[in-house]
Design goal:
The protein contains twelve helices and no strands. It has 374 residues and is mainly alpha-helical. The chain has one domain: Voltage-dependent anion channel (Glycosyltransferase). Its main location: membrane.
Length: 374
């Protein structure tokens, strides 16, 4: 099945799925529903301005993301148990295999939300423990996904299939590990272990940066040569923004976290890392403005002629959410209030996009146009 056909089969214009077979097509991109919901909560935690009631709303959204993670994970496990042939087919699919980065990012996002919001409900110790477990699981899946895709690129005759932006899904996960790992650093009691963990987070940053940069260059070069994705895949043009926003967040938050690890005669290391993160954020932020403008233009043109609903619409959520966290971190690091204002505007857009996409997804599941995830 081609990527375009697969995406079309997941749109709300497709025929109803027979109830007993609704677990036959629980592809890994179902985890984008968890990612997109979780980022609404975690992005709220970084808000540059206080908004009455937002913390409560974000906590509720985090709970929804946690429930969604359990439901989708259960459905995905059942999919592998009951429909192994389909599951292996999706694993070997040149494009769908890239979405195995989604389960990793779903776990990492919910884990970060647990630390940020769950501590008020279950206590700090339990929240740290749960986040650590989810971070470990998400990071392991993300690294394996990157390695798996890298091997496929070297061994497949078609070099991994169509050059769609969805290819980015397999390389962003380690960057999410880097940024969410920064939240865990202060909660590690042993000083040596904190330093080792911080270095590990920077390793995740570099791994994602190298593969992400190469993939981004390949995807955009391919789109320039052969044209934009098919209508059903147009929302995926937002995915590269996930790498941009998440890398800015990681570079700055890891630099901030390093201040507690490199002190005294080694304070210059923390200063250098923080400064490098800030300047990285400025440069990549400018690139992000261009990419955001391009994404809006492409999407608007596609929407004018009709943009069918599919799971790819969740690309309107998580990438924008990482832009919120990246802009907030950059505004704080540079002291430029205008960047914080951008973060606030982006969060409003994120929340609206999430509300629309979540409602459309629930409606599509209830109507049978999308396979049920539970």
């Amino acid at each position: 099945m081609t990527t375009t056909a697969l995406l079309n089969s997941m749109s709300d214009e497709s025929v109803d799925v027979v109830p007993r077979d609704r677990l036959a097509h629980i592809t890994p991109n179902w985890f984008t529903t968890v990612m997109g919901t979780g980022i609404v909560a975690t992005a709220a935690a970084t808000r540059p301005a206080h908004v009455t009631g937002l913390h409560t709303v974000a906590t509720v959204v985090w709970i929804l993301a946690s429930v969604a993670l359990l439901l989708v994970s259960s459905a995905f496990a059942a999919h592998w148990l009951m429909h192994r042939e389909n599951a292996r087919g999706y694993l070997n699919h040149a494009m769908v295999s890239h979405f195995y980065g989604a389960p990793a990012m779903a776990a990492l996002t919910v884990g970060a939300g647990t630390l940020l919001f769950g501590k008020d409900l279950i206590g700090v110790d339990a929240a740290v423990w749960i986040d650590a477990v989810l971070w470990t699981i998400g990071t392991a899946i993300g690294v394996v996904a990157v390695g798996f895709v890298a091997v496929r690129l070297l061994t497949r005759a078609d070099r991994g299939g169509e050059a769609l932006p969805a290819r980015m899904m397999s390389v962003v996960a380690p960057m999410v590990s880097a940024s969410t790992g920064a939240l865990l650093v202060p909660h590690i009691a042993d000083a040596d272990m904190r330093t080792v963990f911080l270095v590990l987070c920077y390793a995740m940053f570099l791994l994602s940066f190298v593969f992400g940069t190469a993939t981004t260059f390949f995807v955009y070069r391919r789109m320039i040569r052969v044209g934009l994705p098919a209508r059903a895949a147009v929302p995926t043009v937002w995915i590269p923004l996930g790498m941009i926003g998440q890398s800015i967040t990681a570079a700055i938050t890891l630099g901030t976290a390093s201040r507690g690890e490199f002190t005294g005669t080694h304070a210059y290391v923390a200063t250098g890392l923080h400064t490098a993160g800030m300047y990285y954020g400025i440069v990549v932020g400018i690139i992000g403005v261009v990419a955001f403008t391009l994404s809006v233009t492409i999407t608007a043109r596609a929407a004018y002629t009709g943009l069918p609903f599919s799971l790819t619409w969740w690309s309107f959520t998580f990438p924008v959410g990482t832009c919120v966290t990246g802009a907030t971190a950059l505004g704080t690091a540079t002291g430029i209030g205008a960047i914080h204002d951008v973060a606030i505007v982006l969060y409003v857009l994120l929340f609206c996009a999430w509300a629309v996409v979540a409602a459309r997804t629930v409606a599509a599941i209830r109507s049978g146009a999308l396979p049920a995830a539970a």
